[in-house]
Structures are given as structure tokens and as C-alpha cells.
Amino acid sequence: MKPACDHYGGVADSSGSYELRPGVPSVETFRHLRAVAGLSDRSAEAVALALPGTWYGVVVHHDGEPIGMGRVIGDGGTAFQIVDICVHPDHQGQGLGKRVMAALTEELERRAPKTAYVSLIADGPAKFLYEKFGFTETAPASVGMARSL
Fold first, then answer.
1. What is the pTM of this model?
2. φ, ψ for residue 118 (rounded to 5)?
């Protein structure tokens, strides 16, 4: 069954207990969701600087509480990156990560130039989810690299 639009402009499942809303979480919620999902923490100061720069984001709510999120960042024209995909462990395994990815990729397809480059870093088995949305490994032609400050 296709999810129905709710009154917030998001998508609720047929039971109404999960709702996907466009936007970004608060700094505190962002840090909490990353921590409980096993992602690395970021300082409150860094998150406060980052969230307003989100090109598009979604937050998953369960009974009004934020339990998942995902964002697209980038320059708005040539380069975009999907980041911060996470779902609280108590709610994993219900297709919520797939719903977050669907919302992000649909917005990219709708608004981003067709020549834009969209990247992401896949941790562990998350790569299987991302493959369902057309993402492929770039090696050996190119290799992702990172540096922490």
C-alpha cells in the first residue's frame, strides 16, 4: 500500500504511527539520533552551524517523537551528498531507512540539475539499501577519501 500524505506535508504509514516530515531535527535530537544509531557524535556547535546548510532533510516521527532522519547537503547545483541517515534502533527493520532514502532521492530527482553528482558514504551493510536507489561503488575508477580534523 502506498503511504498517504499527512497534514504536515510528510508521509504517514497506514496506521498513522510513523510520519516522515520535511525539515531537520533540533541540535539535541540530531546528536541523540546519531548516538543511539551508532554514528559518531558531533559537537553541538558544529551541528548548529551545519543544520541551516541542509539542502533538503527529513525527520521520521513515531507518535510525535523524532526517531529517524536524513539530509542532503551540497552546493545546490553540481555536487550533493546524502548524509546522516539513521533510525533509532527500537524502530529499525521496518523500512524507515528506505523511506528516508526514497524521500531524499525523490527531492534530488525533482530539484537538482540532471548533471549533478550525488555521493554518499556507505557504512557496512547500508550499501545494500543504497544500491536499491541506484548508487554504485566507484572503485577502482575513483576512491572515496576522508580526513577528520
1. 0.86
2. -115, 125
